[in-house]
Amino acid sequence: MTSWPFRLEPRSAPAPASLRLLATAGAIVVALGLGGLFFAASGHDPVRLYMLMARGAFGDAYGVSEVFVKAIPLALAGLGVAVAFRAGLWNIGAEGQIYFGAIGATAVVLVLPHLPTPLMLPLMVMAGALTGGLWALLVAIPRVYRNVSEIITSLMFNYVAILFSDYLIYGPWKDPKAFGFPLTPLFPKAAQLPSYFGTRVHFGLVMALVAAALLHLLLRRTPWGFELRVLGDSTGAARYLGLNIGRHILLAMFLSGALAGLAGMTEVSGILHRLQRDISPGYGYAAIIVAWLGRLSPWGVLVTALLLGALFVGGYSLQAAGLAASSVFMLQGGMLFAVLVAEVLLEYRVVRRAGRA
Amino acid sequence: MDQAFWIATLGAAVRSGTPLVYAALGGLVGERAGVLNLGLEGVMLVGAVSGFLAVQATQSLGAAVATALLAGAALGVLLATLVVSLRVNQVVAGLALALFGTGLSAHLGKASIGQPAAVEFGVAPVPVLSDIPVLGQTFFAHNLLVYLTYLLIPVAWWVLYKTRLGLHLRATGEAPAAADAMGVNVVGLRFGATVVGSMLAAMGGACLSLALSPTWIENMTAGRGWIALALIVFSSWNPVRVVAGAYLFGGVDALGLRLQASGVTQVPSFFLSMLPYLFTAGVLVVMAPRRWEGAPEALGKPYRREQR
Question: Nearest chain A Cα to B275, which residue?
Fold first, then answer.
């Protein structure tokens, strides 16, 4: 039997950062390649589809600006998911928290429609963060006091939040002048986040950058951030350190939901200028991928939010080519699979065999 | 709301609970072996769409069920390779599977959204039994896929609790190292349980697209995969209790739909649609503390034999 000239050997130390980055990039390429095989198997020309997607996302200035537009909610919600995952909390309810943030921000506009901008926008930001955070607390409280896994409850609450938002826009919040369409009235100018360069890129971009910077400081430079990471690594260790685990969970989930709530706020205030149906095409689920691909680091999240943003924008080109818009979820799921495999491979290294085995 | 309304609702509870029976049983088989499949929702969707596409192409229900099972097996092999062979994080891999399945099903079914199924599992009342008052209409006036669960559940119970295979499976989920030392093939059992469980979940999806509402609609499972995961928890990982829970959920679902149809308009329909989700979360919270006892000890933990 001939043997390979190389063999795999477990690494004694973690792989260097550059190699990790390379592995993540490689995994994404592999996932797109496998996705292409799926497209080909169902009778589509994958090369043409990917060209269409690339042209949609990067072909012109508008496409690029739209990538940033999509990256804003993805980054904010992704930061939220990353905080929760860091603390060992599987918050998969970002989608519902986005809707509640949007509802909170819209409530401010509907209750106090004549506020001037300097009052209106900060109030909307606070309301969006607060309602998103409180919605997440509904999951955290049973987790802390009755040991109910947050995975299923947070997911269940996504459906509830979307139905509640639908109730509002079909019912009490419906614009009487909208010919029966389920929309709130258009927000006054004072309630619209400013946008720049003649594109739809809005102030939410700054908010996402600031949120990432603050989160980085919080996680890396404060005792609370350290404790949160200890909790995420091992509940046992956290208990030995004498941490108030319940309080940490409540705070982490509130922060997580508040960040996702901000994503909802920026969508209604910066893009749609009203509350309507389907304000999120699944940003909350994509945020899970954004967080994991970004290795739960705030800066990583910003980068992967752009990547997933490009995938969403490219996805609209798929729709124009007659494919389902949600086909991009297939590519997103595939990327997550590939990155998970890459992480396993990173635990090993290839060494040249000394002689014949 | 007379007696006929309630009898019809009971029947509907069993009918709409049946996809949950399949999916929850599938999840349970995997979890008993220590593998958490958070991707049930995606697997159900792929099962639903592949069964539906097969019935459109072949006009054969047998081929449709076989296709759904095959698709479920393929996804099961994918998940098992990741979490059993490569030992990646089960939560993240499951979430990836949920997303992947959602996208894949949308992609495959795009051209046939809303088409009526060429053939469907129609109502086939069991002679004699369906004439029993109340019980007959509740349990024996359904389609074949419902009756199949009446066989499947006792078999699952018997295998889990009365056979060597079941003992080994449960040992694998409780104490994999001990099972391994006893000579049980831990990796093989986990792999197999994940694949079989995934096939059952796909069957639950096919139950939707071939019987309950014989068509394909994007995301037609509407969270049933996640509800199934909750069902497993509060049935204490017991296949017989899973059925009771599934019918309860089917009942809540059916009652909401029926109240909407019968024109109870005081409660906006949106709130009635929330019922299954609120009920799931509510039951989890109410039943929580004493229920965790049934959880397999090694659930969600990858098994790695000590290095020699």
Answer: A160
- Amino acid in position A327: S
Residues in chain B: 308
Q: Measure Cα distances from B10 to A191, A205, B226 in Å.
A: 50, 52, 23
Count how many Cα atoms sit within 13 Å of the Cα of residue A90 in the half-sphere of its side chain. Answer: 15
pLDDT tens for residues A315-356?
888 888 888 888 888 998 999 999 999 988 888 877 777 654
Pick among B81, B107, B220, B279 to test the A interface (most A CBs inside 10 A): B107
The verdict on a CB contact (< 8 Å) between A324 and B223 is no
Nearest residue to B160 via CA among B199, B131, B189 = B189
Nearest alpha-carbon partner for A265 in A109, A118, A122, A102:
A102
CB B285: neighbour CB atoms within 10 A? 17
Distance CA A334, CA A27 (A): 9
Count CA atoms closer than 13 A to A234's CA, side-chain side.
6
* Structure token pair of residue A333: 């799921």
Q: Residue written as tokens 């124009």?
A: A320
Q: What is the DSSP letter of B39?
A: T
> DSSP alpha helices (H): ranges in chain B?
3-32, 40-58, 61-80, 90-109, 135-139, 144-162, 164-174, 176-181, 186-207, 224-234, 239-261, 269-291
Decide: B51 and B297 in contact? Cβ < 8 Å: no
Which of B99, B221, B227, B237 to mutate to test binding with chain A, by most A CBs within 10 Å of its CB? Answer: B99
- Would you call B285 and A142 a contact, using CB atoms and an 8 Å cutoff? yes
CA atoms of A342 and B96, how far apart (whole Å)? 14
Residue pLDDT, tens place only, A265-319: 999 999 999 999 999 999 999 999 999 999 899 999 999 999 999 999 998 888 8
Residue A99 to residue A264: CA distance in whole angstroms: 6
Give A228→chain B minimum CA distance, Å. 20
On the CB side of A219, CA atoms within 13 Å amount to: 24
Q: Distances in Å between the alpha carbon of A287 and those of A32, A195, A344, B268?
A: 19, 23, 22, 31
Distance CA B231, CA B65 (A): 24
Distance CA B84, CA B77 (A): 10
| Structure tokens belonging to residue A168 | 């509002």
Q: Given an 8 Å threshold on Cβ–Cβ distance, is B42 in contact with A333?
A: yes
Q: Is A147 part of the contact surface with chain B (CB cutoff 8 Å)?
A: yes
User: B210-254 pLDDT, tens per residue?
Assistant: 999 999 999 999 999 999 999 998 888 999 999 999 999 999 888
